[in-house]
């Protein structure tokens, strides 16, 4: 399938030049070369400029709530393990409103892929600070500078035991495509943080700013600790690529039922009478 | 108490950790096996009282459905066990208490026995509760083999424990001495089930074929999760304890989108957190069953006590206007039936069904005739006919005569659509036009009309023609049925399908003198009846102190109103 065939009739409403176009293109490319049939792909979107992608990709989709895409995705995957489930959300979405779910999923390892659009700002609500905004950076809500230390999603996920952690750049579609398709194919929880310029509200972290600082990792690190070190942001250098990968049991395998069968296909009548008898 | 008296009201009380609840449950089952109807009620608060627990069993030859106040037998495992229940004791009450406990100037008949000493002799102080069971068995006059059998079922192959407990039972029986009943109640010929509301809800969901239950623990909703977790492997379902209630409701919605029958359950605070998700299910039009087990609020309130204060909350759950359904069972049989029906309605109308219970129903035990198995509820309104050639994507939100449209499940070739929380067109793609909004909002609300025809009318218990009718919903059914036994001319009208309120319910209530009986202070049902049926009551009886209504209390109030 060609990636254009995944377009809907709704043309993206993003600002011209927005990094979301690059992520959109990379995601469609990754999907178009996937082995899995496209009808077995579900994308769950959060709310934000990033989440608006829901109306631009012709696959099964759920455009859920701000911050709540991950549990929806987990529910879909528990229900039908044949599906490939992908989450698309912003930094406000996944690290502000929904950070508990990102933390929980990193720990429990559901077989889903989370694509985190990191523009260091709230786009859709017109430019407030996000949990990734650099300390001191000015925004509509903090005209004198954001007071909080920024989160680092790569490091956060690594310390929580996420089984695959990556960072890509919306301005390098080819590289990002590889990361996303690797993430979708990885069995377990994958986080792909994507550096995404917001051309309207973030005048500092521009394409050029990123290009000066980005360096590619050759291969994943051997240990989480090494990966953590590589994940750091400095004003001189930001690494992109795959930081770490580990193969471990996927959420659901601890359930006897799910190991044996697909939840969706369980339609067997329940023999209740024996159970009733035990209540005497 | 010779059995001519017909009822026995037994209570065991003591510090947390002494096995009060499990001992009480054994008593409830034993009395049931001896052919009596039972009602088992537990209180396990309260930090102020230092973790004082009780379990109370009311047993009778006729159906009993609510705890009574005055005790026939009180087994107190410590001094507090007597002091805190002084009000429930009269001169007929037999009080079984350890001989070491000093009790002064109370009205009951003390039976002091060496519970603790004998337990220690047997090698385990904890078995004092079983010794107390033995004493109780003798006082009530129930065949001891019934208790032995229950203990065997409980301890099974753990030989040593089994032996100690059996001995403890015998020791207790002996200790009763002259107080022992001569007239023995033997085994019943017809078995009944002893069941809590929570177990009934869980089994209704299992019978419906629920595949996923996701929840975050909160009293008094948690027993449902415990029960399902215990049986999940055997009955092919999955229980997931999520990071919070927000995750629980969203996860259930995700599973439902993929075609699985999913449910979540919580109490007030957790339900508050779920509001946005409930609204999401309304917008995505996906089947979702939510159990809301009420307890007194606001905020954390009285965590382990009961109330009916969230009826309005349930009805108004979620922001925006959309069709939702609220069912409020009054006893375990209704809990089983309505838990099952919740799945049917959720599938039929692709929306949220809230099952409203409370602590009293959830954690009390009742006598139930053997339940009936049911066929698994089908995942309905699902098509395998994908989009038409001229369509861009599948028209999942296609307007229809009753507001319900067919959906596809992921995996179907060319069945793609977006379940979109933004306002959307038929394929789920975003559409903010005034025209589309109008079409969609009307479509979603259209369902209410058809749902109404599935809402059963309130049922009248007792005689049809009366001076006065009590009206209630949910678990007040229990006390109401007891109260009307005391009058010739009072009946009870029971709502268990509370939302949307069926307009025909007016015909049931019209022309009667209504007295609303509710475990809340603002008369939430009364208000709904006034608002939607245009009928008022002549009076009301309200209570929200965390305790259930007691029969005598309501009887006295009704007498005053008559
Ligand atoms: C519960 C809730 N709170 C707030 C909002 C408003 N809101 C919509 S998008 C958004 C932030 C979006 O920022 P981000 O997630 O970083 O995505 P971006 O728009 O930058 O892609 C907020 C606060 C909402 N929709 N729901
Ligand atoms: S506001 Fe920023 S993130 Fe949103 S579309 Fe415009 S450029 Fe992109």
TrEMBL record, chain A:
Its EC number is 1.2.7.-. InterPro entries: 2-oxoacid:Fd_oxidoreductase (IPR051457), OFOB (IPR011896), PFO_beta_C (IPR032686), THDP-binding (IPR029061), TPP_enzyme_TPP-bd (IPR011766). One of its GO terms (molecular function) is iron-sulfur cluster binding. Keywords: Iron, Iron-sulfur, Magnesium, Metal-binding, Oxidoreductase, Pyruvate, Thiamine pyrophosphate. Residues 50-194 form the Thiamine pyrophosphate enzyme TPP-binding domain. Gene3D superfamilies: 3.40.50.970. Pfam families: PFO_beta_C (PF12367), TPP_enzyme_C (PF02775). GO terms for biological process: cellular respiration. It is an enzyme of class 1 (oxidoreductase). It comes from the Bacteria. Residues 198-251 form the Pyruvate ferredoxin oxidoreductase beta subunit C-terminal domain. Its cofactor is Mg(2+); [4Fe-4S] cluster; thiamine diphosphate. This is Pyruvate/2-oxoacid ferredoxin oxidoreductase, beta subunit. It comes from Candidatus Chazhemtobacterium aquaticus.
